[in-house]
């Protein structure tokens, strides 16, 4: 059987964004969160420097063992008919993937690097990433609850903030646990 030509190999070879986002999704499979599996990567140039996923602190029972610790919060937002209150729920047992990534990587490695994350960062993670030294965030799944204010923050900080193109499909092995 003849081997593929370089042009044929390039036609099936994944671009860098797809390659790194696929890895982020595979990292997310380590999560034991029953609501959402999130994976994050730190990349400098084309070099992978760190990975992380969401979950309980090391050595502590996670949500699959002890149940979720859900809190409800209300946030005022401007709507067409004036201010409106939006109910938000979040699990406080879980450390987010972006937070774990920052905990387990060095500042010097983050300077000018890119974070690939399966989900758009929440407001808290966006604030942490804004101060981390990174220059770009690439995500796949939108997080509408905080999208507008996170986008404005990244613009103010000069951090490239982009969603992976519509045609991206995560690897089938990722499982994709998502509930809201």
UniProtKB/TrEMBL annotation:
<protein>
    <submittedName>
        <fullName>CMP deaminase</fullName>
    </submittedName>
</protein>
<dbReference type="InterPro" id="IPR016192">
    <property type="entry name" value="APOBEC/CMP_deaminase_Zn-bd"/>
</dbReference>
<dbReference type="InterPro" id="IPR035105">
    <property type="entry name" value="Deoxycytidylate_deaminase_dom"/>
</dbReference>
<dbReference type="InterPro" id="IPR016473">
    <property type="entry name" value="dCMP_deaminase"/>
</dbReference>
<dbReference type="InterPro" id="IPR016193">
    <property type="entry name" value="Cytidine_deaminase-like"/>
</dbReference>
<feature type="binding site">
    <location>
        <position position="122"/>
    </location>
    <ligand>
        <name>Zn(2+)</name>
    </ligand>
</feature>
<feature type="binding site">
    <location>
        <position position="96"/>
    </location>
    <ligand>
        <name>Zn(2+)</name>
    </ligand>
</feature>
<dbReference type="GO" id="GO:0008270">
    <property type="term" value="F:zinc ion binding"/>
</dbReference>
<dbReference type="GO" id="GO:0005737">
    <property type="term" value="C:cytoplasm"/>
</dbReference>
<feature type="binding site">
    <location>
        <position position="125"/>
    </location>
    <ligand>
        <name>Zn(2+)</name>
    </ligand>
</feature>
<keyword id="KW-0862">Zinc</keyword>
<feature type="domain" description="CMP/dCMP-type deaminase">
    <location>
        <begin position="15"/>
        <end position="161"/>
    </location>
</feature>
<dbReference type="Pfam" id="PF00383">
    <property type="entry name" value="dCMP_cyt_deam_1"/>
</dbReference>
<dbReference type="GO" id="GO:0004132">
    <property type="term" value="F:dCMP deaminase activity"/>
</dbReference>
<dbReference type="GO" id="GO:0006220">
    <property type="term" value="P:pyrimidine nucleotide metabolic process"/>
</dbReference>
<comment type="similarity">
    <text>Belongs to the cytidine and deoxycytidylate deaminase family.</text>
</comment>
<keyword id="KW-0378">Hydrolase</keyword>
<dbReference type="InterPro" id="IPR002125">
    <property type="entry name" value="CMP_dCMP_dom"/>
</dbReference>
<keyword id="KW-0479">Metal-binding</keyword>
<dbReference type="InterPro" id="IPR015517">
    <property type="entry name" value="dCMP_deaminase-rel"/>
</dbReference>
<feature type="active site" description="Proton donor">
    <location>
        <position position="98"/>
    </location>
</feature>
